[in-house]
Specification:
single chain; 275 residues; alpha+beta; Arc Repressor Mutant, subunit A; Multidrug-efflux Transporter 1 Regulator Bmrr, Chain A; nine-stranded antiparallel β-sheet
Amino acid sequence: MDWIEGFQESLDYIEENLSGELDIEEIAGRAALSPFYYQRIFGALCGLTVGDYIRARRMTLAAQELSGSGIRVIDVAVKYGYDSPDSFAKAFQRFHGITPSQAREPGATLRSFAPLHIKITLEGGSMMDYRIVEKASFTIMGVRRPFNCDTSYQEIPKFWKEWLAQGDKRPVMGTFGVCLDMDGKNFDYWIADLYFPWEEIPEGCETRVIPGGLWAQFPCTLATLQETNTKIWSEWLPSLTSYAIAGDYDIEVYLEPEPGSQEVRTYIWVPIKKA
């Protein structure tokens, strides 16, 4: 319950500060999580990004103020963090389908996005296979590209598609997909293999040491990767008692099929520590 209460506190903090500056570090801190994990969990629990949620709530309140008072459009724009009436008007029209001026007209149709509240519901148990293992530190070698949390689910598959299209020209095969170095909403995603000191580092590649420690390893398939990822953050993590998340990174692992099988062996590794 402490975990759920902390997450609800973060939602309450967002709601109380919609007309001010909202920082992901501060929001995540209310839930005692790093920005990296907070945004991963938020997407799994709520079905949208933190940024999309904040925009939806601000547009909801902006429309209510425009339709219910004589406040100027420029004042509403500034209140909800927009630099100009034009940028506010474009965002407003994308959300509501009408301009801010049209929102003042009697009978104007406006959209509303209600505040989120975390509730515990029982909908029938679901099984998740995982095992906890301890690993020494290891080094990866690969290529990395920066991504934004708001668009990463759409853009990372494109990164893989481009990489796989290179065929045998790829300097690494892609054993790992690694999320690293979260900075606010931004992070690096690596397509990488294991690296050993005697190997030459191909042009365009880099190395990175992954710390040793405990890992929770979740088996899945390529087809169920996103589903498993969602269950980790929305079901497994909230029920976690003896362990806590450790480190601002996680790893997708892609191994060769077992003999006689065509299916890639796929895993999600999450770093943990004893609570």
